[in-house]
Each structure stands twice: as structure tokens, then as C-alpha cells.
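pinging the channel bc i need a second pair of eyes. not urgent but kinda urgent?? the chain im working w is below, pasted from the shared doc
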Amino acid sequence: MIISERDGVYSAQHITGPTHNLLRMRLRNGADADFPVTVLPPVGDCRHHDGLKAEEVIPAIRAGVMKANTKLGTDFAVEHAEIVENDSRQPAVYELLARRIVETAVAKSQ
């Protein structure tokens, strides 16, 4: 897993051979609220399904942020997220990526 930050946008990549996921998020402090998810165009020729949809990953992203906030005593919320249309359909991975992004944001601020 690779996590980076640039201009306040965190990117987390999870690549394990045939599966791959990218999650980019901009965080803010405050109560959880609806947030937009941009579905980026496919990367490469790989096809696992007919296309990942924002609605599929929003609950997993929310769960990951909530778990990190509970563990760390923080109040982060997602301002905006991005996923890639032909990434692997694995909600648990998006939950993990969101959790790790919050953990990285906290570590970076200390």
C-alpha cells in the first residue's frame, strides 16, 4: 500500500497483482456529511466488471473514516473523493484505504 499527500489531497494505492485500487480524498474537520465522488476514467485495458460506481464505495469510505476517527479520537470527514472506474470491486479495500488515509493525516499533523 502506498499513501501520499499533495496539496491537501491524499492518495492511497493498493495493488496486489490482478487487483488494484486507488482512492484519493480531501479531508476536513467536522461532522460527517454527503460528499461527492468523482469516478476517473479507466487506466489501462483491464476490466473486472462493467465499471465501478461512486455509490458502491461511499459506505466503505465512510466506514473507514469513522473507524479511524473512533480509534484516534479525531473528527475527520471526507470533503471529496476520487476512484478509478476500472479498479477492483472490493469495498473492504476502500474501507482500509480510507482508514489509512486518516491515520496518515493524523501522523502528518503531529
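so The two ends are 22 Å apart (CA to CA). and The mean pLDDT is 92. — does that match what u expected or am i reading it wrong
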